[in-house]
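Re-run with default settings, no changes from the original entry. Doing this only to confirm the output is reproducible before filing.
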Amino acid sequence: MTRRDAEDDPASENLLALDGYVFVIDEAGEYWVKFEVQRVEPSPERPHGVKYSLTLHDSANRRLVGFDNAHPAKPRPVGSRADPLDHRHRLGIVKPYRYRGAAQLLNDFWEIVDQVLKERGAKP
């Protein structure tokens, strides 16, 4: 996304409003999500102008799911061109993620959170 696209993305303000929130998301209180979101100057690494980290943790504070753009999905050779940093973590596996807007990011995050909670028996 270009800077104009990020500013015109109506869901980006909703995503930015989640910054700093932590929510317990299961009845037993064993799982929680954390949102860290900031607007930044668009760059090749963050072309959409948003720096984010959306994570699901268990009661031992282990990250089970994460969507972020804090670092590359895989190491880059020194001097290589900068690609978007967007990627996702799921139970220790890191894969690139194609950012398609704030609403889609939130939808994709919650979809994987639901899958992991079902796999762990924390959600019917």
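Residues 45 and 83 are 5 Å apart (CA to CA). The beta strands are 22-24, 32-39, 50-57, 63-68, 87-90, 93-96.
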